Predict the 3D structure of the following.
Amino acid sequence: MVLCSVECVQRVSQYLRIPPGNLYMSENNILASDDILPNQCVEGFSAIVQALIMNSTSPARHLGSDTEKQALTRQWLEYAVLRINYADNALNSKRILRDLNDALKSSPYITGTEMTLADVVSYHLLHGIVKDLSQQEKAQYVNISRWFDNIQQDDEIRQKLQLVNFDLLNLYL
Amino acid sequence: MAIGDLKTDKGLKELNRFLADRSYIEGWQPSQADVAVFEALGNAALGSNPHVQRWYTHIKSYEHKSLPGVKKVPSILGGTETAPPPKAAKPADDDDDVDLFGSDEEEDAEAAKVREERLKAYAEKKSKKPTLIAKSSIVLDVKPWDDETDMKEMEKHVRSISMDGLVWGASKLVPVGYGINKLQIMCVVEDDKVSVDLLVEEIQNFEDFVQSVDIAAFNKI
């Protein structure tokens, strides 16, 4: 099982209000989409998400306002594919939570002071993990909790996902 | 949750705790509440408060005027009243418009009065707060006249001095030489209530026993 699935792309495309095209798993077990770019088959989760961003109304808002931030966003999208993708196994998830917790220590969003699609994608990928964390673990990964809580307040991002409760967090800090 | 004076370490620690699980002071996006706290912080050194630091750099990255919300002292700083309306910022030609708020000035006076009252109440409340009592721990060296002085009796006399805010502690005899010992005695005094000079003088008043009194150590607690 991997997390960067068809379903995740569908949710991101719903957030961007861009049709995801014809999504399928290719023979090499790589996510692919036929109709995002004209007459071209886009392969790979990160590539598909980036193609979706480029098709959206304001790519700069989702990718970052300058080239440096855009590069950072792309890197985090790769991180999503290479690492968060496998977070459904307990050992991996601990490491990813630790990494992300460190990354979010000095900035409110993954790529810095702007919310980008890297946040949205990571939120969707991590939702299943964060919602099952105990209160102690939420307090342990307080930077993730804060970030997650902030992201999930946007209805357009959260969509049908369950609102994770962080109300009692400060009792455990 | 209210946060104390942001200029103090304690206030910063509280803000740090507050921001641990929040990205913004109020709600889920930057607002004037953030700006208010940001300005209240001023140029204060943030110290080792990672959450405050993160929030501070984040808010710094915004154009403050463009943030939504009404500028007021946010509730976490204990404020409920609005800051003085930004009248000065209004362009001057506003004055030519029909004055829809005829009683504006009167209201201002009233608001000022209310504000003054609140400030007064706040100051009163603050003054009632128990202030930290400053205490000092002192070690005194009491020297006798000669080796024939009864040190036990001397200690008894010294300990017989009682003042409000003075507590005697442990004591010991320290040899000085030629069989003479000096009495080293500890005491804790409240700075406001006990004058150390007076205490030394009192001990020296036991002229039969005491030759001199020195302050060996003086530490603020």
Q: What stands out?
A: The domain at 135-220 of chain B is CATH 3.30.70.60 (Alpha-Beta Plaits).
